[in-house]
Design brief:
The protein contains 6 helices and 8 strands; from the N terminus they run βαβαβαββαβαβαβ. By secondary structure, the protein is α/β, with parallel strands linked by helices. The longest helix has 11 residues. The protein starts with a strand and ends in a 6-residue tail after the last strand.
Length: about 180
């Protein structure tokens, strides 16, 4: 699975670019991550997309919009750590260490992300947190599996590599918006 995460700020023609990523098959799912954005701004972005893509959108903030528009899912984070009452779509969560990934009650989540796998493209100075040996060991122990998505420095050209490492997919941010 290839998941593209939006840039944190809104930009001109963003809806068109999201639609293009989904139509072209370059992205299976789009995570709308707009920390600090008003609910009305996120709602405007959702409303500017064709309804046929709602089942492929996940929200990091303003989770009630996922319920209102019948979106695919919500992503839990430090700003929004709780599940949305009455929502039965997918629920994902971020992890930033192998220990955290191992400790998560995995049955509560449809998928989890682990980052940073490689040096970040979008965050200057944000370096890979794991050696190849640590990632291989985590995969061997079943900690990294088909429900764990690789995030951090992942490009479209590295999707095959992360799948070979045992991840179930890739989450791409910087490379998608260059």
């Amino acid at each position: 699975m290839i998941i593209v995460i939006t840039k944190p700020e809104f930009f001109t023609s963003e809806a068109e670019q999201i639609e293009s990523l989904l139509r072209s098959g370059r992205a299976d799912v789009i995570h709308i991550r707009k920390p600090g954005a008003a609910e009305s701004e996120v709602e405007q972005l959702i409303g500017s997309l064709p309804k046929e893509f709602y089942s492929r959108l996940v929200l990091h903030d303003h989770h009630q919009l996922a319920l209102r528009y019948g979106l695919r899912g919500i992503h839990l984070n430090s700003r929004n750590p709780e599940r949305l009452q009455g929502f039965d779509g997918t629920v994902s969560v971020s992890c930033h260490s192998i220990a955290e990934l191992a400790e998560r009650k995995r049955e509560k989540f449809d998928y989890l992300s682990l980052s940073p796998i490689f040096d970040s493209i979008s965050k200057v100075g944000y370096k890979a947190a794991f050696t190849p040996e640590e990632l291989e060991d985590a995969h061997t122990k079943g900690i990294i599996d088909s429900r764990v998505m690789a995030l951090g420095g992942v490009t479209f050209n590295r999707v095959k590599e992360v799948l070979e490492m045992g991840f179930g997919g890739a989450m791409i941010l910087g490379d998608a918006w260059k």
